[in-house]
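1st attempt posting a full record on here, be nice pls
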Amino acid sequence: MKRFFKIATAALAMGVAVTLAGCGGFTSCTSCSSCNSKSKNIALTNSNWYPGTGYKGIQPSFIDSTKEILSYTVTHNGDGAKNNSYSVEYKEGSYKTKFYATRQFNRANFNFPEGYNAPDNNNETVYCFETEFSISVKYKLKSGTESDLLEDSIKTICYFRAAGKNLQPVYSERGCVTHVPANASAGSIESAYREFKATYKNYYTYDCSHVTTVTQENGEINTDVRRLKTKNSLFDNEELYIAVRSMKNSSGSQTVSLYIPADGGLVDRTIKASGAGIGDEERKSITDVLVQNGLYTRTEEGNNVPTVAAEIARTDGKGVTQTVWYAAITNADNNVSRSTMLKMTMPLSYGLGTLNFVLSKIGE
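the predicted structure (as tokens):
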């Protein structure tokens, strides 16, 4: 198979000029099939989306018939923008996630490479996490020249194992058309951004020791085979927010490895608990959504959902830092709010402001 090595300047969990990672507490492990190392730095992953967070398998009630569907309103905040050459103007966008499980995942149905099949080609019960992101953006030079309104869209799907198996990735897809900042400064509107259009399909071996990626970009198809050698917990980039959700998030820090083909393969991210809060008005609106769906009960007026936040950053200190907020777990055996993702902030490259994702709806 033809090997390729592509390092994109904007390798994205969401596709808008940042690279993201998961977070949480950790322990050490001397045996793990996801990579070839005797000493492991394994993130503790719990089923924080269940009423009882200690359940390590996949609940039958979460399979096929039940889907957690969350919708977020996406807005741009340019108050902190520091780029003196050009700016961006985003229309209000949307981000939607679907999280469920299936017992019908069979590698033969996804055309896995030879030798990647499960023992006896049996079906496997796995989680599935789907996302859909769309937003419109216009680039503007300080001189007044501006681009047309550009449409960005990203769809992803990822299959992975239970919390008791460290959410090991099985298969993922990403399709994206995005217009990302190209340079810190621009002499023309054409040099301010570039269109990035690609699809990725990632096939993991059953023991998660190797991955084959098939990429289609600009009409060209390339295949890359990688050995997944890391001492950290390994996650596929497309399961990022579930991986973060599965962890402690209230204290400590953690290094994890993400597989991001557009960023050259395995990349490490440092994750640490953050003391950042959510503004009163915004937290009230989020809490209202949870209350309407039985995921929180106010005992008195103004009693809004408690939150925890995690910061996600590159291990080398470069680039931007993302923050993600989840409903705090106050009782691990009666986890009413299911550690639901409530909000995330995504700083844009080159000082172009921040995108904010705020929970607006639960269900179809």
